[in-house]
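Reopening this ticket.

The earlier resolution said the output was attached, but the attachment link was broken on my side. Pasting everything inline this time so it's all in one place.
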Amino acid sequence: VQLQASGGGLVRPGESLRLSCVASGFTLEYYALGWFRRAPGKEREGVGCIGRADNIPTVSDSVKGRFTASRDSNTNTAYLQMNSLKPEDPAVYYCATTYPYPMNSCVKDLEVWGQGTLVTVSS
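Inline output:
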């Protein structure tokens, strides 16, 4: 059971990135999947969550209107589409799941974490 995050990189302000989180060893849609970020010197921040099954994805107020969380059940992969990236967005981004708990929120029981992918925004 693991998550593999990828897609980070260096972009200019206003550009976009799409992060991917591939799940293996379990079926992603049966559990909640959260996106988090940690910038240097700051606490970890939740930026998005997809509950199990048909739960509607949500994002935090700090990224609302720019970031979109989604999931592809066919490929067992979650995505975080990040548009209009700002200088305050750089961080290591992580995905985490509530497997083996079939939750609809990402507040707790995040038992499995991906390794993180670095996003840098610089002109």
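Reporter confirms the inline version is readable. The mean pLDDT is 95. The chain has no helices and eleven strands.
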